[in-house]
């Protein structure tokens, strides 16, 4: 990459959520964490990038555990006046036949490139609720939110006088920005076909979930009723992405290049969308993390200098133990192995796989040889996800000294667990985990990954050298068969390799921590990711 970035394309990055700081509740999970790290990387490495997002009044749910051991949701109104600057600009978007004013805020407070946030909670707006809750709803309300992000976002850029060469949609939520780009061109006299081709040339797209239900779609009638067509006819919407109109398909057809978020995900995504003709190529760009946010510099320095890693690690482990004590009143043993597992609560991540044969795991938990720290949030409307969290809470009551569930998973908890655990456990049903950045945070902190070969891990894993692989990339359409296979593989490596190495071979453990840090610090940093975005997406 050239030193001078003056000639690089100027990028506007659109995302529904940004995980920039724990005080700023504008994120739900991995998508937002990626966007937050990207914006910080853009600032740190001086790229001509601005972000477009939404100022969520209530953010995502705060999810606590009730007396009955079940998660419940709670929302409050946030005030971000300390972080944000009023640009003085308001743009208008017509939604469901009504004019919606969107105020534009600027946020640069967290070491990030400029992020412009749209806000409908302004006096005189009947539709102030639109920017109320992140992912609060699925139907018309979601479309309204996406119209604010996409259409409002492009109009904000115009009003601010920010010139843009490339529009980057992080996930399909931003697709209506592409409709607005087309509308502008049709207003200037282009035909639908011409506007499509010209807009496509300015747009790149990052696709995420390999879970088909995770890819949002809407009946064309609903898009028309909401005014999301921006002047296009129903037949034209169908040509873009079918009926129901699939937002991911639309983004794949309205972009010049797309990317998946890990190499394996590149294969999965190409397979998943191979029946879609006229779509952009999907290249693979593995996610990277912003070290300044997630990684303890003392660990990086000690690893670089070949110094002892246990002392700085123990400091992080104690910080996690303190956090657990403060939040849950449980005192974990710093001498004993701590395994961390923090996730959105969704079935494919299989948070409770490790408990599925109690006769195998129970003796280790009773003896305290294995201590498990969990955290997780489910989508407020996802009862299955909540049942998973409730089951983990039940386990923490069954093994009160060895199993902990930290309620209301957030960036603070995420950072503490990926710094202070000894092992990071990851056992999704392959190949459902697109990337998984938590494992990267862990590995650079010398927290050893114990993971199935999914997401980013096949690229990094050197088994028994810098972490461990669970099983051999087994996949099956029969869920029971897959779970049986992976559970046995997990027990095998956990009980025959991880536990003995931790207790009986500290020298090897330290060597592995060293290898974990050194083998991942550059390859999975946001710097490499940004370079690849420029090489493979923005300038390609
Ligand atoms: C890092 C992080 C994520 C991303 O997690 P993955 O499950 O690895 O994708 C999500 N939420 C929080 C709070 C995080 O810190």
UniProtKB/TrEMBL annotation:
Q: Which N-terminal residues, if any, form the signal peptide?
A: none
Mind telling me which InterPro entries this protein's record contains? Agluc_phsphrylas (IPR011834), Glyco_trans_35 (IPR000811), Glycogen/Maltodextrin_Phosph (IPR052182), Pyridoxal_P_attach_site (IPR035090)
Under catalytic activity, the entry for this protein gives: [(1->4)-alpha-D-glucosyl](n) + phosphate = [(1->4)-alpha-D-glucosyl](n-1) + alpha-D-glucose 1-phosphate
**CC cofactor:** pyridoxal 5'-phosphate
Q: What does the record give under GO molecular function?
A: glycogen phosphorylase activity; pyridoxal phosphate binding
GO annotation, biological process: carbohydrate metabolic process
E.C. designation(s): 2.4.1.1
Broadest EC class assigned to this enzyme = transferase
Q: Which Pfam families match?
A: Phosphorylase (PF00343)
Enumerate the UniProt keywords alphabetically: Carbohydrate metabolism, Glycosyltransferase, Pyridoxal phosphate, Transferase
**According to its UniProt entry, what is the function of this protein?**
Phosphorylase is an important allosteric enzyme in carbohydrate metabolism. Enzymes from different sources differ in their regulatory mechanisms and in their natural substrates. However, all known phosphorylases share catalytic and structural properties.
Q: What is this protein called?
A: glycogen phosphorylase
> What is the species of this protein?
Phaeodactylibacter xiamenensis
